[in-house]
Amino acid sequence: MDRRLRQCAITPYGRRAGSSRVRVFEWLDRVDTDFTVSSYASFADAAPSRLARHPVAVARAELRLHQMAAARPRRLLLHREASPLSRGWWERRLLTCADFAVYDFDDALQWDWGAGGALRRLAPKSAKARTAVRYADRVIAGNEVLGNWAAGRHRDVVVIPSCVAPEDYTPKTFYALHDPPRLGWIGSRHNEDCLLLVAGALEEIHRRTGARLTLIGTTTRSLGRIETFIDRVAWSPHRQRTALADVDIGLMPLPSTPYSLGKCGYKLLQYGAVGLPAVATPIGVNAEILDRLGMPAARDQSEWTDAIQGLLEASDAARERLGREARAVVGRRYSYEAWLPRWTSALELGGAR
Fold it and tell me: Cβ atoms within 10 A of the Cβ of 178, count?
């Protein structure tokens, strides 16, 4: 009897983590092919402190990777990295043991050398990404920046954006401003400090209009003086679907760094899926998405202040036109439905639901 695995997917996080959910689980939910899925220890992240608190779960996760490699899958999808402890050996072994192996990445991992602590520098994501691109049979990149980098190292690269399902979001239907206005941001504790890049603009808008900022995703106060006008909402699947429709303007500031160039603009796509007017830093794929959605771009504190103020001063009808057009564009260009044929082709799968 053939005991080899037919198809497996390996991702570093569980379904609740945005990257794994968007790049792996949402796709697998839409195909008629069964996959054996390993999401390491099913944590929401791979922070060294979390791994240190769960040594048994980490040991079991490493053993599971060994078992999957020994099963020599016929088709393998590896997302980002196999193990936070690997320096590339797990990625190489898993990709070379499969008959057909695909590597998927959605951040500039090739430029992540482990900033943020000594433990991360012991197993930098850059080494794993470079190894994975070398040994995969095909590479899926989340945007053109990542795709162009990968294409310099691999002959078979497919660009597939991080997609959204507009039908999973409560669409915005009420475009009159709240009193006071509500600015909104969605994300994790690992990237909310991007809001400090525009703290001056947020303070000025708050001074002028009394606007408050709703943060969806984290409840720990960490943003210093702007916490005085922040309201925090814990992330859950239900709140992700519904909470954005209850704010007036979405925000996506980013630092001007090589790593930001590789971002896939997912927050902007979520705002667009809701029909929420938004402002973002035009770096990497953000510039393209902003242009397609008709949303304002902002680079410095002055531009951020003017862009937010401009949306707040626009008529309700103008904000509604902007939001509705953005939702339509996201459905046509960035939805799972639009990209499913290309994704199944990249994995060389048969039918899709």
Answer: 13
